[in-house]
Amino acid sequence: MKYTTFYFSGTGNTRWAVSELAKFIQQKGHQAELVSIDKGAQLKDEQIRTIVTDSDAIGFANPIYGGDIPPIMRAFLNRVMDLIGPLPSQKNTYVINTYGYANAFGPQETQKLLAGSGLTLTAYVNIQLCNNVTSNKPLDRAKLAKRMERGCHELNHLADCLIAGRKRIKGHGPQLLIGAMIRKKVPEAIAKFYQTLGVDGATCTRCMVCIKNCPTGSIRQQGDQFIFSSGCTACMRCYNFCPTGAITIDGVVANPDKFPRYQGPNS
Questions:
Q1: Which end of the chain is less enclosed by CB atoms within 10 A, N or C?
Q2: Is residue 254 part of a domain?
Q3: What is the rounded CA–CA span in Å between residue 62 and residue 73?
């Protein structure tokens, strides 16, 4: 059996989760393939069709931002629906969401996105790790280690369910009502987030890491200036991985010594 997961990871949480799932699936004697949807992957339409056709089950994995899936994943899901639907026969589909505080995006919302495609949601799980937004509080590594341990248990169980053909639907609960309210306001804030970003010329070394790592290609250099555009998916990758902490938010330079950047669960 072959299980293929399309994934988007802002700063590492989701990449860790899908890598763990792939490891468990492979240990159980099956194939697992991970496919990044970053702009750098440059997936062609025919590639996507072939991947879906050749896989026994298809997964989608992403972080949750403000009770919703990131714009990059929503756009990718719409693209997949346009390319494949409706499939001649039902194909099992699984979803992995990573989050820091509360996952207020549920399986019902996912089912709406998959409607009419032939992709049938049979598994939906949430993996809590930590938020990727900087804080003046040091990262609680002990708490994160416990969450990673619980995450591994959940992902191993998910692998068992996928292979056995059993449903594994989680994510129902009162947080979905909160999510419904959040999602009315957050999309606009995310859409405008790029307008808050900038680069501090005094600390920037012109290493271009931000441009190279942007998953949507929404940063470019124009003369001595860095321009952020509306394709931004608010993943915080540029902010968290800038070697000198030169990315600003609302014009503010956050000292990396006081505001440590988050670079994934294994950093």
A1: C
A2: no
A3: 7
